[in-house]
Amino acid sequence: MSSATVSVVTILIIVAIGAAIGFLAGVHRKMNLEQWTVGGRGFGVVLVFLLMAGEVYTTFAFLGASGWAYSRGGPALYVLAYLTLAYVVSFFFLPQLWEVGRKHGMQTLSDFFSVRYGNKYLAGFVCVVGIVCFIPYLQLQLTGVGIIVSVASFDGIGRTPAMAIAVVLLVAFVFASGVRAVAWVSVVKDALMVFAALAIGIGIPLIHFGGIGPMFAALAHSRPAHLTMPGATTNLGHAWFISTVLLTSLGFYMWPHAFAATFTARSADTLRRNAVVMPLYTLTLVFIFFAGFAAVLIVPGLANGDLAMLTVVRRSFPPWFLGLVGGAGALTAMVPAAIFILTAATLFAKNLYRPVFAPAMTDDQVAKLARSMVIVLGLISLCLAIYSSTTLVSLLLTGYAGVTQFFPGVVLGLYWKRVTTSAVFAGVIVGVAAAVFLMLSHRDPLFGLSAGFLALCLNFLITVFGSLLTPALSKGRLDITRPTADQNIGQRS
Amino acid sequence: MDVKKPSVGALLLGSIPFAAMCFSVSLWDRIDPILFGMPFNLFWLICWIALTSSCLWAAYQLETARDKRTGRTQ
User: Fold this and answer.
1) Residues 6 or more apart in contact with residue A26 via CB below 8 angstroms
2) Beta-carbon pairs below 8 A across chains A and B
3) Closest Cβ opposite residue A88 in set B18, B31, B64
4) Quick check: B1 and A84 CB within 8 A?
5) pTM for this predicted structure
6) From A154, A197, A382, A383, which residue has the greatest number of CB atoms within 10 Å?
7) What ipTM, to 2 d.p.?
């Protein structure tokens, strides 16, 4: 067999196994809305870990982080800092969010805004911003599948067919099994990814330099500036690092899918324990960085940094291993893409369509609509991925600047009695507008600080001072945490 | 509000990783000394990934001890 055949066959086998597991995950379970979106709120530590870890290890981590280490150097280290700190932040509000979510039967980010602030326009706005921010993130995953599969198969499978196959498979398993499918496909994907990351991160420096130490020594000798900030850039210095790490670590759980993953947990304690363990998982990313840094010396001068790691892997390893990386990489893009589509479809059906167009819809009808939206969203994102392209990290940072604007509304909503609807609404609108304006007019970073972070500060100020200036909410609506008999929709037991 | 706020001790433990991995960047963002073959900034972050888990583990102990003392509301 030629090397291309070997790697293509390996990729297809891995992807087929992953898709089959996803498909079987929900068989023999009645798929109502609660089961489909939040797994019936029954996930223990292991499944929550797999789901959340599955969401972390996206194509971005795989290609984008190594791409940044390759093309920008030092500033890429922000990835290690922000992921770790995101779990610290989560420790202090996810358990509380879970309690509130269970009492009020919340399944989505918009549900929170709708229950806490009692304003369907605010909830609708949050929903629209959430979906719009998803689009680049989703597109990024599909672009990633295309890149990974075409490089790993020695161009035996083209980018477009690879993306098309991935979309068909992931739509099928999300449609059938919902969030349970995503958690179970993560098992296959993460096992392969950790193996691949270790093999690549240790293997590449070993093959080309004789070890990690000699690799960094060579780099420190020939390109010392590359290893610290601002690395190969002019404007990504320490102020940028601090502001970007704050923006992204606070914003991490504001992604609608990460927010919704909270509600799959069986208890608040599950989430706390998960936050303790998750930082350790970030360690596996370190090996991806080794590969990205090694690529600087092995394949200098690539135009697209996102290709750096795979190019080196292709040059250093046998075809079956390349196929394994390709298959793992494809699943790595498909799992997050699946959860994004699932979340966006639920948001659309439950928080936009029903409140605005058809208030009489039952939960079962919402579930049906959400499931058909999965197909529509799959097709839309496929078209976007085929017809446009940008580098991975810049796409991601744009989305982050948008979703992080929900942070004041969520955290102040949980902990501060005095916060008011109009102030939160004004803060979110100004924050999103400022982030979009600064990024589209290429003013990011501004004064050395991340533009999204500046927008978040503005948002916080408006929310806090606006709340103090506007009258407090009427008593009944304010205490979302006080259980009332008719609100126990989502109560287990 | 009825939501149980995190305790001060837990919050202090949580602020340690922020100080170490984020705000102090200009103190550790350098190549030397090279430790275990890695530039110092990378080595520092790797250490703090592990130490962050320890901080949160301690915070977890504090929170569960408090929950036991006050009794769960649910």
Assistant:
1) A35, A36, A176, A177, A178, A180, A181
2) 128
3) B18
4) no
5) 0.85
6) A197
7) 0.92
